């Protein structure tokens, strides 16, 4: 006696075969692939064409993303808070860092949850066409805004170090605000083309199962011709990563050469011990070098974190050519996972750098977290807490023509024998 069929899959296949045998004319009109699709249930059919509903690496990626989110969200909120709360922190350099922190917060608070949800349930996409546009637009905008902010910050640092006299007129808070406005406006405009190529895609029902598409297969993906997407990705990678990083590298090379020349001149010079301006000048040069080192490390980390992201995009734009090469396709899958981790890591690493390399930021972070009332405290051997001070020179007479370039603040003043406020 034959055993009963204990497999639901075998039962489905038997039912499918019986149906096909009863309709031989229909069977003759189907290709081998169509016959296979016809015999699949809905979940199997979706998995065949869209892949697994849940990413196989969801759990480790989720844990990693949550750690990055915790550090990045807290760090960037602290960065925005100390800059917004204390007037002393509202300098041209810090305005760019504030803009960068806002970009990072948008990625962490809006982008990361969307990606985690998609890794948990890749389909159907529940936010509709508007949600798809928003997701694509968000990632494109912050991608462009981040690199443009870093580029503008590097140009500002170059002018401050290599052309200090010009910095008095160029490196100002008003100018920084205008540049940041232009950066975000350009980012929004440049995000439109790629956003317009995306939409909701649904796969058709198997032939013989009726007309129309499966609503449960809705995914947010490319819906326009692929050559348009490939062209946009390759152009934006060139304009918003390769050229800016090349420009930034050249700027910091010139900054390094300038600082080297200044150290050589300082070594040769022999100022008088009681020369206030020379002593103050050396102190400000040291501060300037510390800020430059911090921003240089920020750029290095930015390049390291964003390189996998752009590599992922370029590889995807050539997917038609590499899909038949199994090893290259497997390498792409690893690059895709790594690029996501480094993409979000870039949003968390900046506040860590500020805390490690800037005394002022470190103390401001402590002040915000500990909720102590901040008071400017004069120090001799570390960076000044006060960028803008009300300084009396009655008891400390200083010669005139003494230039001060505070940490990250390129505002100049002269030493006088009366009390002066520096805005």
UniProtKB/TrEMBL annotation:
It is found in: Cell membrane. Its main location: membrane. The keyword Membrane applies. GO terms for molecular function: neuromedin U receptor activity. The chain crosses the membrane at residues 57-83, 95-117, 137-159, 179-201, 231-255, 291-309, 334-356. Keywords: Cell membrane, Disulfide bond, G-protein coupled receptor, Glycoprotein, Membrane, Receptor, Transducer, Transmembrane, Transmembrane helix. It is a multi-pass membrane protein. GO terms for cellular component: plasma membrane. InterPro entries: GPCR_Rhodpsn, GPCR_Rhodpsn_7TM, NeuromedU_rcpt. Residues 75-354 form the G-protein coupled receptors family 1 profile domain. PROSITE patterns: G_PROTEIN_RECEP_F1_1, G_PROTEIN_RECEP_F1_2. It comes from the Eukaryota. PANTHER family: G-PROTEIN COUPLED RECEPTOR, NEUROMEDIN-U RECEPTOR 1-RELATED. Receptor for the neuromedin-U and neuromedin-S neuropeptides. Belongs to the G-protein coupled receptor 1 family. This is G-protein coupled receptors family 1 profile domain-containing protein. The gene is nmur1a.
């Amino acid at each position: 006696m034959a055993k009963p069929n204990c497999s639901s899959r075998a039962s489905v296949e038997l039912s499918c075969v019986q149906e096909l045998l009863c309709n031989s004319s229909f069977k003759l009109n189907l290709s081998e692939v169509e016959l296979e699709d016809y015999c699949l249930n809905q979940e199997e059919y979706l998995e065949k064409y869209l892949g697994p509903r849940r990413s196989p690496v969801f759990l480790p990626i989720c844990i990693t993303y949550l750690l990055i989110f915790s550090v990045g969200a807290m760090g960037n909120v602290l960065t925005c808070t100390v800059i917004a709360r204390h007037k002393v922190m509202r300098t041209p350099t810090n305005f760019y860092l504030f803009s960068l922190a806002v970009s990072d917060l948008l990625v962490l608070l809006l982008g990361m949850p969307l990606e985690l949800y998609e890794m948990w349930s890749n389909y159907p996409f529940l936010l509709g066409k508007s949600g798809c546009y928003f997701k694509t637009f968000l990632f494109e905008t912050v991608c462009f805004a981040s690199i443009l902010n870093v580029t503008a910050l590097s140009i500002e640092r170059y002018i401050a170090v290599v052309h200090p006299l010009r910095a008095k007129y160029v490196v100002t808070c008003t100018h920084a605000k205008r540049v940041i406005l232009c950066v975000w406006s350009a980012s929004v405009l440049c995000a439109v083309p790629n956003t317009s190529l995306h939409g909701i895609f649904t796969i058709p029902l198997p032939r013989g199962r009726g007309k129309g598409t499966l609503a449960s297969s809705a995914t947010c993906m490319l819906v326009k011709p692929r050559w348009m997407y490939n062209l946009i990705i390759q152009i934006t990678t060139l304009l918003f990563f390769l050229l800016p990083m090349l420009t930034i590298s050249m700027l910091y090379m010139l900054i390094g050469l300038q600082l080297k020349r200044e150290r050589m001149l300082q070594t040769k010079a022999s100022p008088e011990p009681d020369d206030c301006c020379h002593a103050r000048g050396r102190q400000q040069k040291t501060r300037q070098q510390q800020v430059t080192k911090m921003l240089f490390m920020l750029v290095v980390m930015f390049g390291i974190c964003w390189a996998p992201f752009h590599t992922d995009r370029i590889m995807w734009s050539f997917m038609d050519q590499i899909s038949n090469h199994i090893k290259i396709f497997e390498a792409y899958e690893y690059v895709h996972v790594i690029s996501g981790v480094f993409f979000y890591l870039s949003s968390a690493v900046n506040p860590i750098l500020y805390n490690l390399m800037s005394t002022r930021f470190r103390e401001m972070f402590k002040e915000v977290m500990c909720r102590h009332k901040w008071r400017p405290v004069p120090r001799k051997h570390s960076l000044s807490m006060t960028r803008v001070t009300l300084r009396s020179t009655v008891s400390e007479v200083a010669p005139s023509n003494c230039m001060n370039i505070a940490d990250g603040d390129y505002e100049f003043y002269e030493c006088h024998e009366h009390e002066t406020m520096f805005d």
